[in-house]
Amino acid sequence: MMIENRPDPHDVSPFECPLELIGVLGRGDRFDLIICDLIMSRMNGLAFVDAIRRYHRVPVIILSGINATPPIPEMRKLGVFGFVHKSAEDDVLFEAIEHVLAGRLYFPTDYTIDEDGRATGDFGRQVELAGDEGLIPALSARQMEVLRLLAVGATNGEIAGQLGISENTVKSHLKAIFDALRVTKRTACVRAARSLGVI
After folding, report:
1. Which alpha helices (H) appear in 54-130, and where do they start and end?
2. Measured distance CA(6)–CA(68) in Å, rounded
3. In terms of domains, do 117 and 25 share one?
4. Closest among 53, 55, 51 to 28, alpha carbons compared
5. Rounded to the nearest 10 degrees, what angle do helices 141-151 and 156-163 cross at?
């Protein structure tokens, strides 16, 4: 509604579920810009961007109001064009849209990357996410591969074989994934990853 009611309105196509939009993109529909949330039902924003990149490089702006530092380095790696915190004024979103439609990136400038590769800074008033601390774990590409195989029931040996790594390396990745998701068992790990939209 905010965008459609602007003096220079754009055609807006809302989607209830990211999987629905992935299907539309897969059929060949094209958009000038996609704006999505970081936390959505059935898939988080990072996984969504990763999924749509197989179709085309449509610019994406991610919004979030989570009570955690946003994963800006991960967004940039996936080719996200901009990030806006939900506590920002409406004009910030409109400015981000104008920048991205003009082919420019739009990210906060007042943040730094810490030793662990995470963004730190003041991203505005952060809103508590109901039922969770709002934390989206930042997993590496390899850890995501391990997690996806774990989710379909693969054993450590099967994961090692499919990824061409040793079982000890698989165990190291699993420990890091368990730590990030704050779990100790495989089933709890998959359940937590799905509830956060990581997979």
Report:
1. 72-77, 90-101
2. 31
3. yes
4. 55
5. 130
Instruction: With respect to residue 4, please indicate whether it lies within any of the assigned structural domains.
Output: no
- The parent domain of residue 155 ranges over 141-196
- Cα(70)–Cα(126) distance, rounded to whole angstroms? 10
pLDDT digits (tens, 9 = 90+) for 174-189: 999 988 888 888 888 8
User: Mind listing the pLDDT tens digit for each residue in 75-117?
Assistant: 998 999 999 987 778 888 899 999 999 999 999 776 555 665 5
Burial of 61 by CB count in 10 Å (0-12 exposed, 13-18 middle, 19+ buried)? buried
Please state whether beta strands 60-64 and 34-37 pair in parallel, antiparallel, or not at all (unpaired). parallel
Same domain, 85 and 158: no
- pLDDT tens by residue, 131-144: 344 456 678 888 88
Residue 163 sits in a domain whose CATH number is 1.10.10.10
Q: Look at residue 172 and tell me if it is in a domain.
A: yes
Torsion of CA 127, 130, 132, 136, to 10 degrees: -50
Residues in the chain: 199
What domain count does the chain have?
2
The better pLDDT of the pair 196, 166 is held by 166
Is residue 135 assigned to a domain? no
The pLDDT value recorded for residue 16 is 86
